[in-house]
């Protein structure tokens, strides 16, 4: 053993030598164990083609290398998806994790949820919904509110710190609206609009509501434009957009009327949510301004929830909304996938019900290749996550799903996701959810 007392090197210099060795050792790079995926085919969603027999190397949470001629080193950690089609994780741009109405879908039940269920209870529901969406291939989502008192932020933080499994999230906090939110209130209890909504009837109140949401950690702002006869004006909406833009983010706008949609487009909304009434003028404006449509276009069997279970009215509503989706697609509007599922339906989970909304896009005549772009690339662009998500590309997050059949041939292949990876971690493999609570969980900052 080396004895510094017997060393010819003076003690002071020896101390400097030890310090140098220690610094050198600490400075040496630590190479993480790579994960390798052998894929029978990788869906290039940008070109709408299949890259056959690909090898993907993943370091930490990102794709480090991909090609057909890569050599997997002996003893490497390999995931064999040689009989599968691998594609980027799906993006759900309009969901509500902490809203799970138990009966028929109407605003009465929604109002009761707000009154009788605590934010904590709704966040617990959100844990199940987050896992279900991830299990069905949705690795990124925009949660657009109705989460009680910032339950969406708690869910996001719990996912980020490893307490629960779920997609990467963007959140809005409490939705900003004119008086009433989306409820019909009674004069004795106007306060029941909270905590779902921040009521803002003046530009000063809009400023305060935006600042409150951003202060608590919201990623973007959501505004209800026109659920009552009184609406936000174009000037009000432009003020909200400009105020939000100065803070470095954007505004999603809930619209349901022709007038509300046009005011929102002219004001600079990043996206129109729902927007079931859009004429050609509005569609042309959306193309010109780059406004996204997140249409929440439900399947035909789901229409009864909106029509009081009147079959004739349900079919009429469905036909109208599919016509609007088809016209938006033909006009070249940027469309992102969003389902807006809030109900519990027998035989479905939140994830399986959400993915079933692809049937609406098929009925609207949207091609399989474009549907995949709507569910990946377009969502990433809307969320400003295109540098990290949306395609299977070197440098991007390893958000990957695997299917048994080619979704470019039939999008129904998306109904059976048997493998899910998010940021390099495997959550579902062989059709089973395999995520386990980590031995060490990152402390909340």
Overall description:
This protein is of the alpha/beta class. The chain is 33% helix and 22% strand. It has helices at residues 11-27, 107-116, 119-135, 151-160, 203-216, 234-246, 258-267, 280-289, 311-331, 350-355, 358-363, 368-374, 377-382, and strands at 35-44, 49-59, 62-67, 77-88, 90-95, 138-143, 168-171, 175-177, 197-199, 221-224, 251-255, 271-274, 292-294, 334-335, 400-403, 417-422, 425-429, 432-433. The longest helix has 21 residues, at 311-331. It is globular and about 70 Å long. It starts with 10 loop residues before the first helix and ends in a 12-residue tail after the last strand.
The CATH class designation of the largest domain is Alpha Beta
Strand content bin: 15-25%
The radius of gyration computed from the alpha-carbon positions, rounded to a whole number of angstroms, is 25 Å
What's the CATH topology name of the largest domain? TIM Barrel
The total count of strands amounts to: 18
What do the pLDDT scores average to?
90
Structural class: alpha/beta
Strand order in the sheet with the most strands: 3-2-1-4-15-16-17-18
How is the biggest beta sheet arranged?
8 strands, mixed
Number of domains: 2
Q: Specify the number of helices.
A: 13
CATH architecture annotation name of the largest domain: Alpha-Beta Barrel
Which shape, going by the Cα principal axes?
Answer: globular
Instruction: Report low-confidence residues grouped into runs of 5 or more.
Output: 1-31
Distance between the termini: 44 Å
User: CATH superfamily of the largest domain, please?
Assistant: Metal-dependent hydrolases
